[in-house]
Amino acid sequence: MYQSLTNRRSFIKKMAMLSAMTAAASMFPGILFAEDQEKALPKGKNLSWKKAPCRFCGVGCGVLIGTENGKAIAVKGDPKSPVNKGLCCVKGYHSVMAMYGKDRLTKPLVKKNGRYVETSMKEALDLVASKMKETISEHGKDAVSIYGSGQWTIPDGYVASKLFKGCIGTNNVEANARLCMASAVTGFLTSFGLDEPMGCYEDIDHANVFVLWGNNMAEMHPVLFSRLLDQRMKRGVKIIDFATRTTRTSAAADKSILFRPQTDLAVANAICYEIVKNGWVNTSFVEDHCNFNKGLTNMGYGLEDKYKFTDKPEKIDFKAYKKFLEDYSPEKVEKISGVSAKDIKYMAALYGDPNKKVMSLWCMGPNQHSRGTWMNNLIYNIHLLTGKISTPGNSPFSLTGQPSACGTVREVGTLTHKLPHGVVMNKEHREFAAKIWDVPAENISPKPTYHTVEMFRALDRGDIRFMWIQVTNPMVTMPKLKRYRDATKKEGRFIVVSDIYPTPTTDIADVILPSAMWVEREGMYGNSERRTQYFEQMVEPPGEALSDTWQIVEVAKRLGYEKQFYYNKDTHIEEIYTEYRRHHEGKKHNMAPLEVLKKEPGMQWPYVEGKPTKWRFHSKYDPACTKEGYDFYGKPDGKAIIWQRPYEPAAEEPDKDYPFWLNTGRVVEHWHTGSMTRRIPVLHKAMPHAYVELNPGDAKRMQVRTGDPVKLTTRRGSITLPASINERGVPTPGQVFVPFFDENMLINDITLDSFCPISKEPDYKKCAVKVEKA
To answer: Where is the 4Fe-4S Mo/W bis-MGD-type domain positioned along the sequence (predicted)?
Structure first.
């Protein structure tokens, strides 16, 4: 809701009492129900209600926004949305308040002699365009770049890709979803040949077992987690929490299984070992629909060791794969992982039971991993070996972190190697995009340039001189942050930042452009289950703030691309989306037309003959299949791949000098870097600053109590935070956990910029740290 509907004290009390169901009330915070929301709505107000997807995470909850006198003043869950069915989490419930912080950026700011000076939007955009022209002229087209976000709308990302890849001719387009979802992308591509889940949220209503792989779902995706708890109340389903620390998800699960960091690779292989050993393989499915591959190993960790990695798959057979699994018996893996052989066999039995439908759910745990692609492959292996895939309730499902990480990054293709319908390396894909974009095909470079970490390294080296940052806060989120913050300040670099509030990233900008936020403009998001959702403009943005889409369009026109950016300001979203749909025509990825999106609470793709596709790769549900039964049509032969992927250690492990593991993540109250949610008073009050969780035994040994200052030191630097012991989460012995939302306690100053060499996604979950009482 908004403002003083409840005071902070009663709000916090209410949060503690509410839950998806009474039995789960104390297990996790943040779920509000329609009846509770209705009680808190402004009374006697003449509100106008319109639908939108929530501004925050990738679940894509439908909300209704109440406006009056040109201001958004209320929010409630949309009961028509099949995603959340009227529920809201604590962030969604207060989302409109994020638009009204006292320090909103309303005028463009240009740095002159070290100070920011207000200017008009026209002058600011003129300057941005002139600096781009100057940089291209002096240093070449690959010296300019744009860094966006899974919070970009679909039109934002589309025009960014069109301008940079199609018109300017550089593939220097990346988005912060590289930091959170790239391993999911490469996992899907290597196993199935196409990106995005084959299942949907409706799988929750059919599954008997939910295995959460390193996924604190109760706090990170609370509305979806409430649906799991609801199914347990109704049908007695089982929830297994498989994680490196004890969380509110652990408390709510039927069983919590803890493993040593990085050893999820070994445990997944041990589950496959048990499935094979016990005869639980769905033999006919595997023979008819799967191939076996192994790829390169010992491939480095992306730490600028000049390691040029290219995965070279080699076809193997089931016999060779079975031989590989001999090193991963539960008894052997127990010694590596700390997970008992009994628990490994228990998990394998759940997957192996032909009478149980199993849904695997994961997010940053397997993705932000130095072997993130492998970990995604291994989860798919389990489902492929048992044939539990592409049917209701049998679903390996990768959850998304941001509202349009799927829609704008994965579908639009705002990564250096991607195009909306394919990849830059493919000549036919380049020609297809060029035709729609009305540019010469040779404009689109066939060679990817820099993924996110390398893009900032290129800025440091001077290969990139101009960077435009939109809808993201990399000066809080980049790993090994100090290096990249220093890079932005080097001579000869020009940084443009589009945002709604001052952040550590706007602090390093040469030009700051005020952006319209969410329902202050029109757009679409795409959520985790392939659901595209439209929202209209409901209120006016403050001052001279413009949508990120129109900022790019205006600069494109100034660069001389009026023909390609012909859009009318009043109708540009409809024109852009209509053009974008042309990239995805056909049964494999057709997008619903705008008139459908305006009417419905989102629509899943592929949208074929007026209907959404809920389950892909099975002819019963997917009209793109060309043969009866399963058809993994992303691969030429229609077969998915079971990958031989070994356990390998992390890039940096604890030693005598740095004896602890450092793990980072989020909290339920704050959205990523907190630049929006920390301006919502009730959320800031509930979680005002970051902290470091310690295991109680470690804390006792160091004589540290809750609130005591603790110094964390890695090979990158040091940071001091207050201790948290036996509060929200409990790490295992020898591990600490720090949330990253607090710009005053920049934990990423000391994290490591290692990454999965296939996906190029950094591993924020594991590096070595020394822990001392300060």
So the answer is: 47-103
